[in-house]
Specification:
The protein contains twelve helices and nine strands. By secondary structure, it is an alpha/beta fold. It has one domain: Rossmann fold (3-Layer(aba) Sandwich). The structure holds alpha-D-glucopyranuronic acid. Alpha-D-glucopyranuronic acid binds next to loops.
């Protein structure tokens, strides 16, 4: 060590020690989320919430469970085909006129929250149009901005952003797969990409190129332009705009419902664009956006097909399963904003088994439309619970059958990489980690039975 480096070392040492001694405190946004969640707990008279599973430390007392023998403390799911009054649903007519409405109401009130009646109108603008190449396919890409009318509360501005690309040589409107993403390019970190240090995806066509190879288009909706992905943002975005900057009521919508609402507004625009066949728009999303995908598909019957990737707890995984992520994790300050305030009850005074509906009924809300459920291997994607996702597909089966469609054909959890795609509710566990990548070809095979380029 030279004299000068020694001096530098001595000068910097105290700073380094200090940095180690002071754990970084919560950020202002985290504090705001904590305060907002506490307000909701007070409103619901909830004294405390149970701790979630620890997904990082297998030695922790609350380590996430990955042992199937402990995974089913509540093996009986609510029957999707029994009315609240105990009567059996015996016809498609009863499903549509009575039971589906009951299920929607329960998801609205207890799980994802209600879309308010007075959400302002959205005015779509094509901000730019350009001709470009994706691989060797010429495409036309439009950047769209959905301006939400904020005259009721000008303090909050919501300009939703969507990017839409369709094959330039298409004769008429084409099917489009709409993906949920986080931030518009160049505006910060998004979620859903491969985790740091993950092995590189094998070289090959991107999902957009795979979709183009079918003659379809692709689109991306940027959720952060609809509703922020944190509790602090609940007084902003579309939720904050409608609430005029005030905190939510217990059955108000959470971020998942808000993102799904945004996808429905994008579909409104697609209905006006001749480049799109709006009757053949599919949805795809991974992880938190896998949750948004199944919610959007369940609530808006105009969407034709969905690829629900690694949606896990709060998505297609059944809440009653003890595997990986739990209801309690979703109730934590970094995730509670996805859901209705009422959902907190099930991580405190009530338990998973008290939920009046479970995720198989969310999948059932998608029926008779085709849904593909996906997850990766336990080693790499165990947190999302592939089997709990499969069970939601199984549980939705009776509703698909009642509506004249096919269930998955088995209630036996299949070997990894077995595609169950002969029915209208489909499943495959791929052998990769937390990624949608490996299941794109299977999804496209499944989806192409339903959506087709007409010209
Ligand atoms: C966390 C969270 C999951 C979520 C995921 C993601 O792991 O626990 O529920 O799906 O983040 O969106 O990346």
């Amino acid at each position: 060590m030279t004299r000068s480096t020694r001096w530098l070392y001595l000068l910097l040492l105290p700073l380094a020690v200090q940095a180690f001694q002071q754990p970084a405190g919560p950020s202002p946004a985290q504090l705001a989320a904590q305060a907002d969640r506490q307000k909701m707990m007070d409103l619901l008279h909830i004294a405390s919430l149970r701790q979630g599973a620890n997904g990082n430390d297998p030695q922790a007392p609350n380590a996430a469970n990955y042992d199937e023998s402990k995974a089913n403390p509540f093996p009986n799911l609510p029957d999707p085909l029994v009315l609240n009054n105990g009567k059996k649903v015996t016809s498609a007519k009863m499903w549509w006129s009575q039971r589906r409405q009951e299920i929607v109401e329960l998801f609205d009130r207890e799980i994802y929250g209600r879309v308010p009646k007075n959400v302002p109108k959205v005015k779509w603008e094509v901000a730019s149009t350009k001709n470009e190449m994706n691989g060797d396919v010429p495409v036309i890409t439009k950047e769209l901005v959905g301006h939400v009318d904020n005259t009721s509360y000008p303090e909050v501005t919501v300009d939703m952003r969507v990017s839409l690309s369709t094959p330039a040589n298409a004769k008429g409107g084409v099917p489009v797969i709409l993906e949920f993403g986080g931030n518009p390019p160049g505006t910060g970190r998004g979620f859903g990409g491969p985790p740091k240090g993950a092995p590189k995806q094998p070289a090959g066509p991107t999902w957009q190129q795979q979709v183009l190879a079918q003659g379809w288009g692709y689109a991306e909706i940027y959720t952060s332009t609809i509703q922020a992905d944190n509790g602090a943002g609940l007084v902003q975005g579309i939720i904050g705009l409608v609430n005029k900057g005030q905190p939510r009521q217990p059955d108000d919508w959470g971020a998942l419902r808000a993102w799904a609402w945004g996808a429905s507004r994008a579909l409104d625009y697609f209905e006006t664009d001749k480049a799109v066949d709006a009757k053949q728009v599919g949805l795809e999303g991974h992880s938190r956006y896998g949750k948004a995908t199944v919610v959007a598909m369940a609530y808006d019957q105009r969407f034709a097909v969905a690829y629900v990737s690694s949606s896990g707890e709060g998505g297609a995984k059944v809440h009653r399963r003890n595997w990986g992520e739990l209801v309690e994790n979703i109730a934590a300050t970094n995730e509670y904003h996805w859901m209705a305030g009422n959902f907190l009850k099930y991580a405190g005074p009530l338990h998973w088994n008290d939920l009046p509906v479970d995720s198989h009924e969310l999948v059932a809300m998608c029926a008779p439309r085709p849904v593909f459920l996906s997850a990766g291997a336990t080693n790499g994607d165990g947190w999302v619970d592939a089997k709990g996702t499969f069970l939601a597909g199984v549980g939705a089966g009776p509703v698909y059958k009642l509506l004249g469609k096919k269930d998955m054909g088995t209630s036996e959890f299949p070997a990894i990489e077995t595609p169950l795609i002969d029915g209208d509710v489909a499943f495959r566990q791929h052998s990769g980690g937390h990624t949608p990548g490996p299941n794109w070809p299977t999804f496209i095979t499944f989806a192409s039975r339903y959506i087709k380029t007409r010209s």
